[in-house]
Specification:
The structure holds two protein chains of two kinds. Chain A is mainly alpha-helical. Chain A contains six helices and no strands. The relative contact order of chain A is 0.05. The chains are: A mainly alpha, B mainly alpha.
Chain lengths: 148, 141
């Protein structure tokens, strides 16, 4: 309590010294340290100045790049959405192209073997084969037949 | 500023800024006031940088400054002086600034008004509030 009163008294009229001290010869050495600091900052200042000069252009370039990237993603997604119907057409073209490399008997043999059917005792319809092919490629057989 | 290293940085930056801005010095203003203004701005910027760099809240800055006050080898006042410094650290930044300028440096309100770009009335009110808070802090602890 006495200490607090002492502080309060000091606030009114105490010697207003700060409780901080300095290293020895601080102000004597200060000009030399300041000169060194200024020389160092001048050397590194070249890059900072150059950077500050091109900074607005860099900011604009970054914004443009961000817009370009955004545009690319949007366009890519849009195109991919449009291409979602393409695989069926592509499959139809592939079948159309390669179907003639196999004779009917080969296709029938594979078809019957995979479906555990007797080749000799079974009558095959074109629709059966189309259905089989569409199942193999996970396609809508109606769409495949329409295209083919 | 509390730590010697921080204060040294601020002083060096103040002199460098003054050197670079010498052309802008108005001769009708006092050199002391002009330098004090640069030093004040530099000290406030240094404190803001410290807060940003360490991602710490204002209250944490205060406790960190208190620790510096106890641990820095160049802080070597007596117990009462340290206690007063801790009381000053509890003040908001502006009040702390006004209190230090008035109490320790005995700067006139008119000069302070020019340095801080604040009206004399507002500065007197700030100082009054600061003194009341410090007295309250000292009575409490």
């Amino acid at each position: 309590m006495n200490q607090d009163r002492e502080i309060a008294d000091k606030l009114d009229g105490m010697k207003k010294d700060l409780p901080f001290s300095l290293p020895e010869n601080y102000f004597e050495n200060f000009p030399e340290r300041l000169r060194e600091r200024m020389e160092t900052s001048q050397k590194s200042g070249f890059f900072e100045k150059t950077f500050s000069l091109v900074r607005p252009q860099l900011a604009i370039a970054a914004v443009l790049a961000a817009f370009a990237l955004l545009g690319y993603v949007i366009v890519k997604n849009t195109l991919n959405t449009g291409r979602q119907n393409q695989p069926i057409e592509e499959y139809a073209e592939i079948i159309d192209y390669y179907i003639y490399d196999f004779d009917d008997e080969t296709i029938m043999a594979v078809f019957t073997e995979e479906n555990n059917l007797n080749y000799l005792n079974h009558t095959f319809e074109a629709e059966d084969i189309m259905y089989y092919l569409s199942e193999e490629d996970d396609l809508n057989d109606t769409e495949l037949q329409d295209l083919y | 500023m509390i730590s010697h290293d921080d204060s040294d940085d601020v002083l060096q930056n103040t002199m460098i800024n003054a050197f670079h801005g010498l052309d802008h010095f108005r001769e009708d203003a006092s050199l002391y006031t002009w330098l004090y203004r640069i030093a004040t701005n530099e000290a406030l910027s240094a404190l803001k940088r410290k807060k940003r760099r360490l991602f710490i809240k204002l209250e944490d800055v205060r406790s960190q400054l208190e620790r510096t006050l106890e641990e820095d080898s160049y802080c070597n006042g007596d117990e009462i002086q340290i206690k007063l410094q801790k009381a000053i650290l509890t003040l908001p930044e502006k009040q702390r600034l006004v209190f230090n300028m008035k109490y320790f440096d005995d700067i006139k309100y008119e000069d302070m008004s020019e340095i801080l770009e604040t009206s004399v009335g507002a500065l007197k009110a700030s100082y009054h509030h600061a003194v009341k808070k410090i007295e309250k802090y000292l009575e409490k602890d």
